[in-house]
């Protein structure tokens, strides 16, 4: 392969940067749009003693634009200036009020490599009732309006299998946790 970026121009610059790339792909020259998106972290917090996980819902403008109600999601956020595990811990405190000490890395994934530079670092973290030290709900001034709830892992897994879990991060993290700890997904 002799694929290459031949040129780039900025179409828009704000929180995201939108670029038009001039490329050589498979010997042909073409243009493609690229979204420069900061990388982030996503975390599934779970209580192994009670076999529940804390998931959140929050209005996201892309699903809203398509008329889709808020999704059940894993904790997540952007943190370019800090290590991904720190971003995951900070977001867990802001969004769901949990102070997490140890986070287990699962891996990192490209969300849509055909159009965006966004990568998400995935983590799992155990918690207990004593770790809920704040109210959660999101950071002041960020218009997050986050609601969260604890849900049985068996119920979340059933939702994953029936297609009701549509957030990619939550979907991947539930699968990762089930591979590591299948006992947590047994119904009472």
From TrEMBL:
It catalyses: GDP-alpha-D-mannose + H2O = alpha-D-mannose 1-phosphate + GMP + 2 H(+). InterPro entries: NUDIX_hydrolase-like_dom_sf, NUDIX_hydrolase_CS, NUDIX_hydrolase_dom. Pfam families: NUDIX. Residues 36-173 form the Nudix hydrolase domain. It comes from Sphingomonas jatrophae. Its cofactor is Mg(2+). This is GDP-mannose pyrophosphatase. Keywords: Hydrolase. Belongs to the Nudix hydrolase family. NudK subfamily. GO terms for biological process: nucleoside phosphate metabolic process; ribose phosphate metabolic process. GO terms for molecular function: hydrolase activity. Gene3D superfamilies: Nucleoside Triphosphate Pyrophosphohydrolase. One of its GO terms (cellular component) is cytosol.
């Amino acid at each position: 392969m002799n694929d290459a970026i031949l040129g780039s121009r900025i179409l828009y610059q704000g929180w995201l940067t939108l670029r038009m790339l001039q490329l050589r792909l498979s010997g042909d020259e073409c243009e493609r749009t690229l979204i420069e998106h900061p990388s982030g972290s996503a975390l599934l917090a779970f209580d192994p003693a009670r076999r529940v996980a804390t998931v959140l819902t929050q209005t996201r403008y892309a699903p809203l634009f398509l008329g889709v109600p808020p999704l059940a999601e894993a904790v997540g956020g952007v943190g370019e200036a800090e290590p991904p595990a720190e971003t995951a811990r900070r977001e867990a405190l802001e969004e769901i009020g949990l102070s997490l000490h140890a986070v287990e890395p699962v891996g990192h994934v490209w969300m849509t490599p055909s159009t965006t530079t966004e990568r998400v670092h995935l983590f799992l973290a155990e918690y207990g009732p004593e770790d809920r030290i704040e109210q959660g709900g999101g950071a002041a001034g960020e218009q997050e309006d986050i609601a969260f709830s604890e849900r049985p892992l068996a119920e979340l897994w059933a939702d994953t299998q029936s297609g009701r879990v549509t957030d990619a991060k939550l979907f991947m993290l539930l699968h990762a946790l089930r591979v590591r700890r299948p006992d947590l997904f047994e119904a009472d």
